Amino acid sequence: MTDVPNSGGSIAWADGDKEIAFLSTKSEVLTPEHVWTVAAAGGTAEDRTPQLQGTAFSLSGDPQGRVWVSVGHGVQSDLEEFRDGELKTAYRWQQGFIAGLPVRSDYAQSSGQIAFNVGDPDHAMNVAVPEGDHLLKITHEGEDQLRKIDLGPVHAVRWKSKEGVALEGIATFPAGYVEGNKYPFFVLPHGGPESNDEFDALARIIAGLGHVVLQPEYRGSTGYGAEFLAAIYQHFGDRAYRDVDSATDYAIAQGWADPSRLAIFGWSAGGFMTSWTVTQTNRYKAAIEGAGITDWESFLWTSDVTQFD
Q: Which of 298, 197, 189 is nearest to 236 (CA)?
């Protein structure tokens, strides 16, 4: 029906079945992150969200002809509707995120009833449904247990690196955190690298051991637009490292982190970042590398999907 310049994903009928909507990208990255359409009869596809300051993660249609798109905006995600050729915010879960696309009820398809998974730093993932222009949580699994646990604060934080790059991250503090005290510190770069962090349990567990944890959304992360996502193409080590290390600078400057008790831990791409970091600086007293790549030549032939680069 059409050729796209890079990878594609998700697909749905749109505009009364006159068009097909899908996700793709023009950049050098592998993540389909914009909404595109092509006429149902075929032809040239068009990027309908060229100025999107976020990342379209997934897309689907429903029996009522609506096209739903899960869109990441930094460390939060919204559910948006693709209508009249543009994205329009439909639902948002304050102080948290909507996990994925809505689920439709098979027994009530005619009513258009949909449901979502929603999460935030202080509650377990649960189900919510639309009620007017907002969402109403209808399950509360895990909340009785969480009420018995002393949890520290969690905040989305923002800073600029030494290069002037505007960055965001999630800071998680231990229970009983006292402002002005310095704590053992973990910087926790995510995997991917074309991914991002949402409020999750792992940082909570590490903070529960008495650490301050900062998860930096370094260049190459999703949720900040195509330019930010593609910024580490052929620059994964150097640029991403400087962004991750700037998170540690920020935590020290805020008075959260004890400069003599710094650690770094990452998995997959974050594991690679951990290995790279210890070749650049000795500031970290501990470095935990999980499933990272340290020999690219052997990786090409022994990964779960053989790669030709």
A: 189
- Cβ contact 30:192 at 8 Å: no
Q: CA–CA separation, 167 vs 9, rounded Å?
A: 28
Q: Three-state DSSP class for 34?
A: strand
pTM: 0.91
| pLDDT tens per residue across span 168-224 | 999 999 999 999 999 999 999 999 898 999 888 899 999 999 999 999 999 999 999
CB 99 within 8 A of CB 57: no
The CATH topology of domain 8-143 is Neuraminidase (2.120.10)
C-beta of residue 215 within 8 angstroms of C-beta of residue 196:
no
Around Cβ 307, how many Cβ atoms within 10 Å?
11
Closest to 141 (Cα-Cα) out of 165, 122, 124? 124
Query: Cα angle vertex 36, ends 32, 38, to 5°?
Result: 135
CATH topology of domain 154-298: Rossmann fold (3.40.50)
Dihedral, 80, 116, 207, 255 alpha carbons, nearest 10: 30
Nearest to 82 by CA among 8, 7, 15, 4: 15
